Amino acid sequence: MPDIVHVTYQQTGKSKSTNELGMREMQQKAFEARTAQYLLIKAPPASGKSRALMFIGLDKLINQGIKKVIVAVPERSIGSSFAKTELKKHGFFADWTPNPKYNLCTPGGEQSKVKAFLEFLDTDEQILICTHATLRFAFEAIDEKQLNDCLLAIDEFHHVSVDGDNKLGLVLSNVMSKSNAHVVAMTGSFFRGDSVPILLPEDEEKFTKVKYDYYQQLNGYNYLKSLGIGYHFYQGRYTSAINEILDENKKTIVHIPSVNSGESTKDKYEEVNRIVDSLGDLEYQDPDTGVLYVKSAKSGRTLKIADLVHDNPKDRDKIQEYLRNVKSVDDIDIIIALGMAKEGFDWPYCEHALTVGYRGSLTEIIQIIGRATRDSENKTHSQFTNLIAQPDAEDDLVKLSVNNMLKAITASLLMEQVLAPNWKFKPKFPEEEEQDTDEDDGTIKIRGFKLPSSQRAKDIIESDLNDLKAKIMQDDQMLKAMPGNVDPEVINKVLIPKIIKETYPDLSNEEVEAVRQHVVVDSVFKNGTIEEQGDKRFIRMADSFVNIDNINIDLIDTINPFQKAFEILSKSVTASVFKAIQETIDATRITMTEEEAIILWPKIKNWIAKTGEQPSVQSFDPQERRLAEAIIFLKEAKRKAAANE
After folding, report:
1. In the chain, where does the domain assigned CATH 3.40.50.300 lie?
2. DSSP code string of 313-340
């Protein structure tokens, strides 16, 4: 199946070049905000967040009166990202020199690590590195005021949540309310993949946000030129289909499905064996490194494979140590993992991230894609492929399969939005010149476009747009709208503002409308294609081809933001599967609202005027069926109103 998303980059080298202090572009942006008490850094994998924290932490220790820096990471392997680092030789005023004694990302029980954490607070040592788990356990034994004049840095901040059962979220809330500690939060995505927010709105507003886009990062590489995102659908067991897309000539990380998922065979070790067998014959496993040496059935060459699925601690420590010290493109060919090799895992040579099974968390998808988007001289193209089960109309779990497929496709469309270059949008007034677009700064002027009237709305548009899109595109009602059975204006004017209000209940109607317009316009332009014809520029949006000089918000509101997803579905699955998808969604159709019916009424009249007939609820055209349902709804509403009178 061809890529759903294919993005090309200019290889400018800008994101990897450094200034006189040894800082990359993202690190410079973060360092400019170094005096903030609460700082949130949102930047993609491989952009240098770890070193940005070192720069900020050292400045706080030396110039801002902070006495200690505590760095918390989600798992032990990521602790190495914060190891001793020479910064002075690159122009910075100090080196990052943590005492190995207080690097608690080492083997051992939590009890001894908590003891070391408490000891650290009473010493003159300045830097401690630990896991999220150690931080949680340590907070059961200390008073928050012991963190006065300390900096708490939380890596992979999306692990935090305001859910009452999320202990890391409780730790953060208490630190902010009961101490004067500074906080630096770092994440590649602020979206957890569930309905629970990371921070309460009143806490979130306290953070100064530094955002560095995925496109800025990848466009500024030296070697990587393109990134593809695609899906491959299978029936039966994935282990019999994986050899169709697992290319031994590409450095690949394979993530097999969770044993609790529908795609799993429930025997993860046997799944690894089958993947290895599909590649060739196992010759031997190196007793010192744990590397599997497999003779390829296709080429006859020897493949080096790492198995991170088997959980024997001794064997896993061996292979993890080997992977940490990979220095050459020839050191490993394929890594097979389950829960590992995601966040913070660094294998720059990786070309292909092959993930089996639907992933519910968009953050997890971003993290997995990030394993393949490191810049390395061995590749010009990176690929993410999701191998997912095709819904079977005869299967009792068809509803679950359909939902997973829809969420997987919308996740890829969101990634396209994340990976695309950013536009700026402004209102266009009648007295202005015809030319809409300022090519120098990528600004497009739109008639009827509304700018945000408050700083709160501006901040959401500036910093949270992709995360808000994630919430919108993974909403159950929006998923049911995907196969073209809901009018575009209803999607844009009813469903999207409803989700914005639920996400930001403090916004006024005017603020919601400004945010809504930015979401819709940004989505339509990033899903569209801009073409030049002579001195004019046109945008192809779904079924429309429009001169940019004539663009207006009313026209954009008639564009279905899910049009591309609908096309993907209709082209990539069989007719019987597509019918099963539509029938499944029809069975759980969204309830008709008065707002939707009002918007559809003029379209109903136009339909009758053109065809001479009322739209039929039995029609094969999903939009005609929805118009027919609107008539039924309006008749019923009129009947109820008459009865009440």
Report:
1. 17-212, 220-389
2. HHHHHHHHHHHHT--STTS-SEEEESS-
- The CA-atom distances, in angstroms, between 213 and each of 25, 102, 204, 625 are 11, 33, 20, 41
What is 17-212's CATH superfamily?
P-loop containing nucleotide triphosphate hydrolases (3.40.50.300)
Sheet holding 437-438, edge to edge: 424-428, 443-447, 437-438
Residues of the chain whose pLDDT is less than 70? 1-2, 161-166, 189-201, 344, 360-362, 391-401, 403, 431-441, 482-484, 542, 565-566, 568-591, 618, 639, 643, 645
Q: Are 350 and 82 in contact (CB under 8 A)?
A: no
pTM, full prediction: 0.75
> In CATH, which of 3.20.20.30, 1.10.10.10, 3.30.360.10, 3.40.50.300 is domain 220-389?
3.40.50.300
Long-range Cβ contacts of 362-366 (<8 Å, 24+ apart): 362/189, 362/191, 362/193, 362/411, 362/414, 362/470, 362/474, 363/158, 363/187, 363/188, 363/189, 363/191, 363/192, 363/193, 364/193, 365/411, 365/415, 366/44, 366/45, 366/188, 366/189, 366/415, 366/418
